[in-house]
């Protein structure tokens, strides 16, 4: 941005007398509109005014500095001249324009510039908003055009800054503005007063004048009862609405803890908790959908359970098997017929057993609920709506975070305009001050960050170090993935060979694979942090993004191997492992992985943060605490959410388990961060961190889970003895059979059958829909990127225009210096 050069000798006095408005953007916008109105309505007269000003410059003495301002300026110039000697020594020596004594002609031209006069004249602002109120009234009712008004009622910029508005003229403008405000509606009047670039005192006086002159002399006793009742109802409804909005605002989750974290640790740690809050809402939506359309109908109409059901022993809380296998938690419990009151047998009053297949007479055209169709549609619709929400959130986040913002301007706004004077509570004031202080530190760190230019040897050395670090990370990830692949194959073969002699021991052995995977996910990020320490990144934000990339590589590889294990080995031949319902077994596996991952997260919080803090304080006698690892914790959240999305088909209640896990995780992590962690030694601002998290949640996580679920529903053969899709070749055939039944009952619905065959059965349209979403995201990112480039060019243009102004002013001053006579030059040198 071009540096603003101040040529007004009375700048300090004037600025001390004026108040700076809070909404600075609105003020600049108002001034630009005023200039535009001048051009539209008085283009010819402005040219005349400039010609008159030019003639005055030639007629008057161009070297009389005392005559460049109004009489009020003369006295201040004389008083200011006595103090200019000491002040000139403090002028910035880096800019030659600031330490120059300018001629009166140069100062007169500069003081006549609209950008230097409009903001200092209250009369110009009042004239501008007088014209705006007239325009608004003309839109509400037929009024004459502005050209029909007197010339004095139009906005004018001539003379502002050269002579101060007289008291009578300003009072006249003010009275006309008050009259116009009285003729506006209450809403328009409030909006107009809010938009005025005046201080709060001026706005309050205008509002009081408007209300005082607009009071109705009729007393309340003369108002009809119906009107009074109407007014009371309106006021009561408005107060109730505002109270309801305030109550809804108070229901926002975790406001105070998030502010406390933001104030102490900055935006990086805050982004983790905001992301956790986002995941909580996604799982809450899934839980509502599956609970309302799957769990609740099946719980109301429970099936007949097989004999010999196992009792609850407590181990089921860890393994998810045993007693939980015959509940609404898993896929195998759900029936494959239409639920209705006619599906009750006469003896026990319960539905038909799952093992008996579908009963033909179990159909009723009243109050019927097709469970296979509901299961298929609920999963598909929930994934589709989640995809829309994710795409919308990602696009909105792109628009917020990838905008061009100058750190210097943000720093100025944060320092001068960020305090909320409505906050009076002591604890809230403390939180706000901590928050602003931390954000100012981040902005200062970004402003003062300098890119070090390395030599060729240093660049080569850093490339070698980075290459070695990435080679270590990739090799360790590959080794761990291969270990998981062979260990899962070993457990699969062991399950097929072993006989069920000790049920509890066999059930406990199912935890071996989740424990190994969680242990790898816990230890390997430590190796990644060691590699990052070896690389010694200058920027903490770059280090965070690199750590996110390496942890993402690990999680995606592990999930890929696990999906192959579940959908390639277990689903291909479930009889080898002794499972009649492989969908329920996969659901149990996903439950175990989700629970064991949470347990290892708690252990890491205990040993990695709490005990390390105690060891550092008690044994090492240091006050240094560990720093919160954003990359690893965020990727753990994404890993757990991917497991939840994968398991919602096999375990409809898995989102409820994920909700409980996220709630506990928030409070545990929040307490651990506040007690055991310290803020980063190098504060840094992560404006794009939330966007990166949402992007990773959409593409590697949700897209991968959607592909696996779609492959399961379209390609894999369901179990023949359990679940709502038994005796079907694929889960997808449930929708096809329902459409065929509709067409058979009503031949007029054959169009629906053809639409289903072309749109749903054909995977081409599925890929087209996914491609449209990707194209929308791509174009949105390209539009944002184009806006960033345009703003960068505009900023460069502003800098060039600033340099041009400095050059023209210097040239103007040199011309006047050459026109001086030798005697005048000698006098000017003596005055300096």
UniProtKB/TrEMBL annotation:
Name of this chain's protein: Transmembrane channel-like protein
GO MF entry, a single one: mechanosensitive monoatomic ion channel activity
Basic and acidic residues: bias regions: 74-90
Annotated region (Disordered), positions in chain: 59-91
Domain spans labelled TMC: 581-687
Family that this chain belongs to: Belongs to the TMC family.
GO cellular component, one term: plasma membrane
Higher taxonomy: Eukaryota, Metazoa, Chordata, Craniata, Vertebrata
Membrane topology recorded in Swiss-Prot or TrEMBL: Multi-pass membrane protein
Subcellular location(s) per record: Membrane
Keyword Membrane: yes
Transmembrane spans: 269-296, 373-394, 468-487, 508-532, 552-572, 593-615, 643-668, 689-714, 764-781
Species annotation: Gasterosteus aculeatus aculeatus
Annotated keywords: Membrane, Transmembrane, Transmembrane helix
Residue ranges the record marks as coiled coil: none
Keyword Disulfide bond annotated: no
């Amino acid at each position: 941005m071009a540096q603003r050069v101040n040529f007004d000798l009375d700048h300090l006095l004037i600025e001390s007398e004026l108040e700076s408005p809070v909404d600075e953007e609105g003020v600049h916008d108002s001034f630009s509109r005023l200039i535009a109105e001048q051009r539209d309505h008085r283009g010819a007269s402005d040219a005349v005014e400039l010609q008159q000003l030019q003639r005055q410059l030639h007629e008057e003495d161009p070297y009389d500095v005392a005559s460049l301002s109004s009489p009020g300026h003369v006295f201040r110039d004389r008083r200011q001249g006595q103090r200019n000697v000491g002040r000139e020594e403090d002028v910035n020596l880096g800019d030659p324009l600031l330490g120059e004594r300018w001629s009166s002609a140069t100062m007169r031209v500069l003081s006549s510039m609209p950008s230097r006069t409009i903001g200092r004249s209250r009369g110009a602002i009042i004239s501008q908003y007088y014209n705006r109120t007239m325009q608004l009234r003309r839109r509400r009712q037929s009024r004459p055009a502005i050209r029909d008004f007197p010339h004095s009622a139009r906005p004018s910029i001539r003379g502002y800054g050269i002579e101060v508005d007289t008291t009578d003229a300003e009072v006249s403008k003010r009275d006309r503005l008050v009259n116009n405000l009285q003729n506006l509606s209450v809403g328009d009047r409030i909006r107009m007063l809010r938009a005025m670039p005046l201080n709060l005192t001026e706005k309050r006086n205008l509002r009081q004048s408007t209300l005082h002159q607009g009071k109705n002399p009729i007393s309340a006793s003369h108002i009809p009862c119906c009107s009074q009742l109407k007014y009371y109802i309106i006021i009561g409804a408005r107060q109730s609405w505002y109270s309801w909005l305030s109550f809804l605002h108070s229901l926002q989750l975790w406001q105070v803890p998030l502010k406390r974290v933001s104030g102490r640790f900055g935006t990086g740690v805050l982004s983790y908790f905001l992301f956790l809050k986002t995941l909580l809402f996604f799982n809450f939506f899934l839980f509502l959908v599956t609970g309302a359309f799957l769990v609740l109908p099946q719980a109301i109409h429970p099936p007949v359970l097989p004999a010999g059901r196992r009792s609850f022993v407590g181990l089921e809380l860890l393994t998810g098997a045993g007693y939980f296998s015959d509940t609404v938690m898993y896929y195998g419990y759900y029936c494959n017929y239409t639920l209705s009151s006619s599906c009750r047998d006469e003896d026990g009053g319960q539905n038909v057993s799952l093992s008996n297949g579908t009963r033909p007479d179990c159909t009723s055209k009243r109050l019927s609920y097709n469970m296979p169709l509901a299961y298929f549609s609920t999963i598909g619709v929930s994934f589709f709506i989640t995809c829309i929400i994710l795409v919308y959130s990602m696009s909105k986040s792109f628009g917020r975070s990838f905008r061009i913002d100058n750190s210097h301007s943000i720093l100025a706004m944060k320092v001068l305009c960020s305090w909320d004077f409505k906050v009076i509570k002591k604890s809230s004031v403390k939180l706000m001050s901590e928050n602003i202080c931390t954000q100012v530190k981040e902005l200062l760190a970004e402003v003062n960050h300098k890119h070090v230019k390395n030599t060729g040897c240093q660049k080569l050395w850093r490339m070698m170090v980075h290459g070695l670090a990435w080679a270590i990370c990739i090799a360790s990830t590959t080794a761990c993935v291969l270990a998981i692949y062979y260990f899962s194959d070993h457990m699969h073969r062991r399950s097929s060979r072993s006989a069920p002699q000790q049920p509890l021991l066999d059930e406990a052995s199912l935890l071996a694979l989740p424990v190994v995977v969680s242990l790898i996910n816990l230890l390997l990020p430590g190796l990644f942090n060691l590699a990052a320490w070896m690389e010694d990144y200058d920027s903490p934000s770059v280090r965070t993004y690199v750590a996110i990339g390496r942890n993402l590589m690990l999680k995606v590889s592990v999930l890929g191997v696990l999906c192959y294990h579940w959908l390639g080995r277990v689903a291909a031949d479930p009889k080898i492992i002794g499972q009649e319902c492989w969908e329920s077994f996969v659901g149990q596996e996903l439950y175990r992985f989700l629970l064991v991952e949470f347990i290892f997260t708690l252990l890491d919080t205990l040993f990695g943060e709490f005990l390390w803090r105690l060891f550092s304080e008690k044994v090492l006698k240091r006050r240094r605490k560990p720093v919160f690892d954003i990359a690893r914790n965020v990727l753990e959240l994404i890993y757990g959410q991917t497991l939840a999305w994968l398991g919602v088909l096999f375990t409809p209640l898995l989102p409820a388990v994920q909700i409980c896990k996220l709630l506990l995780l928030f409070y545990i992590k929040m307490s651990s961060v506040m007690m055991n962690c310290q803020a980063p030694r190098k504060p840094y601002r992560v404006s794009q961190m939330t966007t990166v998290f949402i992007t990773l949640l959409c593409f590697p996580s949700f897209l991968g889970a959607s592909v696996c679920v779609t492959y399961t529903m379209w390609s894999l053969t369901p179990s023949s003895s359990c679940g709502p899709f038994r005796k079907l070749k694929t889960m997808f055939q449930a929708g096809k059979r329902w459409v065929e039944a509709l067409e058979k009952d009503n031949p007029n619905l054959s169009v629906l059958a053809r639409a289903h065959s072309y749109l749903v059965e054909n995977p081409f349209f599925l890929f087209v829909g996914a491609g449209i979403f990707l194209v929308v995201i791509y174009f949105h990112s390209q539009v944002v990127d184009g806006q960033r480039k345009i703003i960068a060019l505009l900023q460069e243009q502003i800098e060039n225009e600033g340099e041009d102004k400095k050059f023209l002013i210097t040239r103007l001053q040199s011309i006047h210096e050459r026109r001086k006579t030798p005697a005048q030059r000698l006098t000017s040198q003596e005055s300096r």
